[in-house]
Amino acid sequence: VQEKKIFMVQGPYPIIRRELRARGWVERKLPGTGRQLEHHHDPLHYPWLPAEKAEEQRDEDPNSIHDLMSYLVRDRLPNFIWTNFLDATDHELLQQDNVVNHYARVDAFTTKEGLCLSLQKLPWIEQADPNTFFPRCYRLGIPDEREAFIEDFRLTAARSLLKLALEEAGDSPVRTQQVPNSAKGASWHRSHISHPKHFTAWPGSPLYPELVEEALAVCKQHLDVLWHQDIDRSTPSPCRTCIDWDRFLQQYYRVAHGGAGLLLTKQQQKQCQNLLQHLAEQLPQLDMEGKLNVWILKPGAESQGKGIICTTRLEEVLQLACSCKAPSVQVGRWVVQKYVERLLTIFGTKFDIRQWFVVTDWKPLTVWFYRDCYLRFCSRPFSLCHLERARHLCNVSVQKWYKTSPDQDSRVPPDKIWSNKQFQEYLAQLGQADVWHQVLVPGMKAAILSALRSAQDQVRFSKGSFELYGADFLVGEDFQPWLLEINSCPTMSPSSAVTRRLCANVQRDTLCLVLDRKDNPTCSIGAFELIYKE
């Protein structure tokens, strides 16, 4: 009591409890909670029991000296609190001068809705462009953002059409003759094209010669806007031209997803190449966005992959966002985000990276990056032609419901987890050994810091507290990391041998960072490194 070493733990954290007891701390147990089951196996004490019972028996043994000490401090206020969620903690305890592993109002960057809004403000806070690390995102419950998304979807469809046209022209000679009037807007047989055997459209499938011209016009006007050539004249939005967008999108869907063909003249081919090259200079996401216009719809405040849907149809996004098909989601509380279509896969399978970091102060902002992390794999091979969750959501809470499909590469780990060391070995096999330290890690650090600075003024904090976060990243084909979200309560429940080791390590090292370092600034803090202090 005199040394202020009374702690309280809420949730399944046997490592935290064990480490604090080893430091001479005494636990104040929650009243009325009964036995606290912890999902962690401790064979040293009770090797014959299942994991939960072993921990239960060790912690709740009535003869334990720890239980006796806990009884003696049952009326004392804890000096250190480690809990799942701040809201689950008695606020009378939080008003005292104690250390807590959470800050208040972090939803400004730990919810999908909050992160989307905060990063919109980033260019006004610092010289950084969120489009270079965060797939563009819109809150569908906000009318202006909903309209901005509709315009973005249409513009992306126009750019995608140019990419599809160039791709098709690369496989077959471009058209050299005038398109018959009867072909416009109707089915045009392959025999009307020179060297038809190289043409990729299905026999008798529609060809849309006007689509390329319309897409070129839209993209040219958009480029003019990006170049600020519309400052001295009232140029309408590229999506408010005379194009019938409903018709354009329906025909684009047939080209992108239905096998319909496109006609491209040599002049149009050159125009497409030039336009896309200039647009790439202005749009950091032009390459990663691909050509199928896939978007991912997410409940704004949910986690663990709940309610997430991938789609390629504008009308589906708008219809779902205005309904309440997900029972836990309020109408309008959806965000829609551009799907990273051109991503790096491992053995043909999508993966993401869970990266930990700790904030120990907000003024001055002080951030510690954990040098170890892990990868999470999907259960089925990656395909943009099939948008089911098993192929596209890497969350452990999602993938645990799926068995590995028979067509999955056998080299994908059975538990769907890799350590960053295994990933580095894989990169070395690709001849990209330097990518981890020169591209991925610097990119993840920069994205995390930008996200924190964008939300810094929203967070409520108390000196001495801290918080451990888990950021999720995708990796593009060019090895650039793309931030997806930041979690305020990253799971510490091991789902594999890799996570059992890493989750235990990060908890131990966090206690070294926030407790031991106060008394001994030179003590080991494990895999943590200071990456920012204002």
TrEMBL record:
It is found in: Cytoplasm, Cytoskeleton, Flagellum axoneme. It catalyses: L-glutamyl-[protein] + glycine + ATP = glycyl-L-glutamyl-[protein] + ADP + phosphate + H(+). InterPro entries: TTL/TTLL_fam, TTLL_monoglycylase. Its main location: cytoplasm. Keywords: ATP-binding, Cell projection, Cilium, Cytoplasm, Cytoskeleton, Flagellum, Ligase, Nucleotide-binding. One of its GO terms (molecular function) is ATP binding. The keyword ATP-binding applies. The keyword Mitochondrion does not apply. Gene3D superfamilies: ATP-grasp fold, B domain. Transmembrane segments: none annotated. One of its GO terms (biological process) is cilium movement. It holds the Pfam family TTL. One of its GO terms (cellular component) is axoneme. PANTHER family: TUBULIN MONOGLYCYLASE TTLL3. This is TTLL3 monoglycylase. It comes from Helopsaltes ochotensis (Middendorff's grasshopper-warbler).
